[in-house]
Design brief:
The complex is a heterodimer of chains A (422) and B (152). With 422 residues, chain A is α/β, with parallel strands linked by helices. Chain A contains 14 helices and 17 strands. Chain A folds into two domains: 10-51 and 313-420, Aspartate Aminotransferase, domain 1 (Alpha-Beta Complex), CATH 3.90.1150; 57-310, Type I PLP-dependent aspartate aminotransferase-like (Major domain) (Aspartate Aminotransferase, domain 2, 3-Layer(aba) Sandwich). Chain A has helices spanning 21-25, 53-66, 76-96, 110-125, 144-153, 170-174, 199-208, 228-231, 256-261, 296-312, 314-333, 360-369, 382-388, 404-420; strands spanning 34-35, 38-39, 41-42, 104-107, 131-135, 156-160, 181-187, 213-216, 235-239, 250-254, 272-275, 280-282, 338-341, 350-355, 372-373, 375-377, 393-397. The chains are: A alpha/beta (422), B alpha+beta (152). Chains A and B meet through helix 12 of A and helix 1 of B.
Chain lengths: 422, 152
């Protein structure tokens, strides 16, 4: 069932084995367009990454050659579509090293995956007086579903504090892991700060108390090797569009015994075995959690994206982004009035910053006119902003196609910001 | 469209030194404005006399466009009748959203906002203060809580 692990392709590496970013860029058509008359510099991959030709072509090929509904027809197209969809599930399994495809649920994205657990698990396991433990650096998608679940159950949402660097200190965190904690939910990587959380150590502490752990992997999946068995987490959620795939497709990984114990969360076609007016019986994993016609072309595109990342090599991508992070951090710190927000020792390729006296939205607009796309605002992590006493930051984030030249363009555009405001 | 069409000298000046900034003691009306996209918020307090907007202050934090727009607005509306404030509100809304809008009345320094409509992502920054003022004036007399408006 499991295919051999593909090796990172040599064409994407230089003589030292480093990622050849110019070669990678050639695969991304959108990176060759202009914005406001300047070549695009895309530094917003943490919001959504761009898609390589391999993904765009896979989705087109599926639509041109194989599309039909899955798990239904006896005709050739339905069988081809089913093979493509279930083949995509196997690619996801391999990519995150799950034990079985029964542990891979397709969702619309990270948000829906977390909502699935919050509703299905929360609806049956959470009782009045229980606690769900999150952290202060979570994206709204890993806060609000738990608030809703806690409200329904009469449970309490507890958020662990951050230190000044934007790290979750494991001592402070574990002191909140108490006898009432029923579930731990945490980001693998903070989207607003770039902080990488020590997930395995936190999972071990939670499991020592019998508490299951959900990991929001939206910001990690494209930037480091994710092995759900090595992490030992119970649930892991991620989105296709943050790992060079299409929007509208994502994954919930769940440890099989955990998923088997949960009731379905949405009813409809595909998630049933038999339906009578009096009662229905539910399908097996993973289809029990996939009501209705799924996003088949999205799954095909996601699989193509994961295969693309495997060809580039995840260690190579991680090393490349760490190099860019170090370079950009050093250069930005030299700018007068610039403050980095989030200075964790272990960081992913995300740099949040503020400029004294200049609002992030003004930075974003001026950079945009220079062809440089960054994110500005609260990054759907308002508690992080509150923690730092800010309303917004500017954020540059890297992907496999980012280059040193992108950083130079960012710095030049920041000079322009200063020029406008002085 | 150059970036300086948005960040004109008048805008930068009002951002650096906002007029009528703060809170008005003994205000007759107050409203809170909020832009959930960016988290920026604005508070307007005002005093009415004989059907005129006698005085107002704005408070809060925001980008250069929202601060300058509120500052320019505060200068433009002070002393106007409620009907004139309302007419100006509609004029400015058209200026911010319609290309090549020709105002039916002189807008004075408010014309510094004419570049905003070329930057669609920033229209809400410039209009938040006007929506907030509108809400403060529309508040029924004797209502307990200050109304809150949102750009979304």
């Amino acid at each position: 069932m499991s295919a051999a692990l593909p090796l990172a392709a040599a064409e994407y590496a230089d003589a030292q084995g480093r990622l050849l970013a110019p070669r990678v860029r050639a695969d991304f058509p959108i990176l060759h367009r202009e914005v406001h008359g300047r070549p695009l510099v895309y530094l917003d991959s943490a919001a959504s990454s761009q898609q390589p030709r391999a993904v765009l072509d896979a989705v087109t090929r599926y639509g041109e050659r194989h599309h039909a509904n899955v798990h239904r027809g006896v005709h050739a197209l339905s069988q081809e579509a089913t093979a493509a969809f279930e083949g995509a599930r196997e690619t996801v399994r391999r990519f995150i090293n799950a034990r079985s495809t029964r542990e891979i649920i397709f969702t619309r994205g990270t948000t829906e995956a977390i909502n699935l657990v919050a509703q299905s698990w929360g609806g049956t396991q959470l009782r009045a007086g229980d606690e769900v433990l999150i952290t202060h650096l979570e994206h709204h998608a890993n806060i609000v579903p738990w608030q809703m679940a806690c409200e329904r159950a009469g449970a309490r949402l507890v958020a662990a504090p951050l230190n000044a660097a934007g790290e979750v200190e494991i001592g402070a965190w574990s002191s909140l892991l108490g006898p009432r904690t029923r579930l731990v939910a945490l980001a693998h990587v903070s989207n607003a700060l770039g902080t990488v959380l020590p997930v395995r150590a936190m999972v071990d502490l939670a499991h020592a108390r019998g508490v299951p752990v959900l990991v929001d992997g939206a910001q990690a999946i494209a930037h480091q090797r994710v092995d759900v068995q090595a992490l030992d987490c119970d649930f892991y959620a991620f989105s296709g569009h943050k790992v060079y795939g299409p929007t509208g497709i994502g994954v919930l990984y769940g440890r099989e015994p955990q998923l088997a114990a949960l009731p379905p969360w949405q009813g409809g076609g595909d998630m049933i075995l038999t339906v009578a007016i009096e009662r229905s019986t539910y399908n097996e994993l993973p289809w029990k959690f996939e009501a209705g016609t799924p996003n088949i072309s999205g799954a095909v595109g996601l699989a193509a994206a994961l295969e693309y990342v495997e060809r580039l090599g995840r260690e190579r991508i991680a090393a490349h982004e760490q190099h860019l992070l170090a370079l950009a951090t050093a250069r930005l710190q030299q700018l007068p009035g610039l403050t980095l927000v989030g200075t964790a020792a272990d960081k992913a390729g995300v740099i949040s910053f503020t400029l004294q006296g200049i609002h992030p939205h003004d930075i974003g607009t001026i950079l945009d006119r220079e062809g440089v796309a960054i994110r500005t605002g609260h990054h759907c992590a308002m508690p992080v902003m509150t923690w730092y006493g800010l309303s917004a930051t500017a954020r540059a984030s890297f992907g496999c196609y980012s280059t040193e030249a992108d950083i130079e363009r960012l710095l030049a555009a920041l000079d322009k910001v200063r020029e406008v405001f002085t | 469209m150059e970036i300086r069409d948005l960040y004109r000298d008048v805008i930068l000046d009002h951002n650096r030194s906002p007029r009528n900034f703060g809170r008005l003691e003994g205000a007759d009306a107050e409203a809170l404005g909020h832009n959930p996209l960016c988290g920026d918020s604005l508070d307007i307090t005002l005093r009415l006399k004989d059907g005129r907007l006698e005085d107002l202050r704005f408070n809060g934090q925001g980008c250069a466009i929202s601060v300058a727009s509120a500052s320019l607005m505060s200068e433009a509306v002070k002393g106007l009748s409620i009907a004139d404030v309302d007419a100006l509100y509609h004029e400015v809304h058209a200026l911010l959203t319609e290309p090549a809008h020709v105002p039916s009345r002189p807008l004075g320094k408010l014309m510094a906002l004419a570049g905003v409509h070329e930057f669609p992502a920033r229209v809400k920054c410039a209009s938040l203060c006007w929506h907030t003022l509108h809400a403060a004036l529309a508040k029924p007399a004797g209502a307990a809580a200050a109304p809150t408006v949102s750009t979304e």
